[in-house]
Predict the 3D structure of the following.
Amino acid sequence: MKILIADDHAILRSGLRQILAERTDIEHIGEAANGKEVLQKMRTEHWDLLLLDLTMPEMSGLEVLKEVRQHWPDVKVLVLSMHAEDQYAIRVLKAGASGYMTKGCVVDDLLHAIDTVCSGEKYITLSVARKLANSFSSNSSLPPHERLSDREFQIFCMLVSGQRNAEIGRELNLSEKTVSTHRNRILEKMNMNNFAELVYYAVEHGFVNRPTQASNGHSL
């Protein structure tokens, strides 16, 4: 099989390449350092599996995943992320990923996950399976960040990381007013009164390490 590794860290790509090179059933291993490069390589060559990071320059992993599902539906996508399962796993599985792994996993588990998704099955842990089942029962039972749309979730992550409305607008090709509207919807959907509460939630759930500066320029 042919595997494309998509991650913006060269050392991690090199490590994964060394691990996968020991497999006799892997014909070719490719690399991409950002989202646009992933799509470029998808257009020019056939791949069986995409090992996809979520946090990359140019395009987020979620945006790449949507493009891959739309244009190359036969390609299996295994997300390999630094983010904990409860932050992203449900969202990427619903978006069409075949599995979700954290970068802290052991090699044997990663190889098992690759074999599982390449055989046409989904790879999820028991805890994620339970969360996924609960997510279909009632929206009120979801954690607040899971109530957001993919675009809202993307903007939520950018906001709590310290980016201002204008910066987000430039990066996502949106007007500052549109970003502000999304921000208000995020607060409403997550039942929060202000940006400080949003940052506190992000810190408590591991989306950011610590609050630095709110997007309006005031320290928290």
Remarks:
- The chain has ten helices and five strands.
